[in-house]
Amino acid sequence: MERSMLDLWVGLFVCAGVGALLILALKVGNMSGYNAADTYQVYAQFDNIGGLKPRAPVKSAGVVVGRVAGITFDNDKFLAKVTMTIDKRYTFPKDTTASVLTSGLLGEQYIGLVAGGDAANLAQGDTIKLTQSAVVLENLISQFLYSKAAEGDTKK
Amino acid sequence: MPERAVPSIRRIGHTTIDIVLRLGYAARFIVLTLLHSGTSFRRFGLIIREIYYTGVLSLIIILVSGLFVGMVLGFQGYHTLQTYGSESALGVLVALSLVRELGPVMAGLLFASRAGSAITAEIGLMKATEQLSAMEMMAVDPIARVVAPRFWAGFLSMPLLAAMFSAMGVFGGYLVGVVLIGVDEGSFWSQMQSAVDFREDILNGVIKSVVFGFAVTWIALFEGYDAPPTAEGVSGATTRTVVTSSLAILGLDFMLTSFMFRGV
Fold first, then answer.
1. Is B100 within 8 Å of B73 (Cβ atoms)?
2. Does the residue A149 lie in any domain?
3. Quick one: average pLDDT of A96-104?
4. Mean local confidence (pLDDT), B181-187
5. Which end of chain B is more exposed for a tag (fewer CB within 10 A), N or C?
């Protein structure tokens, strides 16, 4: 009698522990990630990627369609080369624009894809030609200051 | 003057040699335990019994502290995040801090003080009352019969307890954040799910808790087995178990964290 009660408690304990792990995996984490099998890779080159990191989302119209697989520096063109894995379910025209965007004011950076009008679609290993770099705050401020200064000149 | 310096120098040397000696003995002890664990797996009932005492009985303290830690994280995180207008990231904050850090560490500290001290006291008292010697007289190896089942019980219980701590903490954060304060439920869960990675965050947390379980159980068993067979000896060993395993958890946590999350 004692024996079976003990076994029952331990069994319940193990079930609760495994259940907690499952909750963590399914409810808290994103177990349903992208498998390597049903994705294709495309490349894009940017003048400046800002704070983009590997595993950042690739979004189109706000929907996550893929992830940034890797970021390397192209030493021939002196540009950042970003590798993206995109879900096979989504296809994009060849003249898609990729831009580095920021979610919210302090949020993480992601790549936004805006589809173009080309009939042919991007395939495994293609490079996105049209890219738009991350906004660098310093450049923005200096542009603003220059335009203000220019305004001041014309007023005089 | 030199005559008075000699004893203190001698004491330093003595203490150092003593520490190294105990380390070596502890290493031999764990190897012996691992070698003798075959018998305890054949008699799995022994491990079940010990899981009951170390794991099931630690459940209440783990669950309650997990809930409270999660709720406090909910309040504190909300307080800080709302100044940046990003209180929807509360779920991310609660989940990441619990899964990566607080879950394994807090569960390990509680496990050390709840189960580890009990293991040390039990084995130390067994030794003081010569039960271990009696076993040897009956040709029963005390390491195989007493130590190994407790080791595997602690080793198996600790990750489960840490997972329950984290899950309970996330629930506590949800209670305070969503139910009490009124953060949007959808963004609480969806931001959490997009930020918490299974391999990067959850599995690394589980690895941490496995390492802590190993360290705490090892220290507790060794301190008990090595305790001087007196009342003072057992009480001193119990204190040392809690202190040493807490320090070991924090030190190991630093090392593991710097290995795991270096490039991220």
1. no
2. no
3. 85
4. 84
5. N
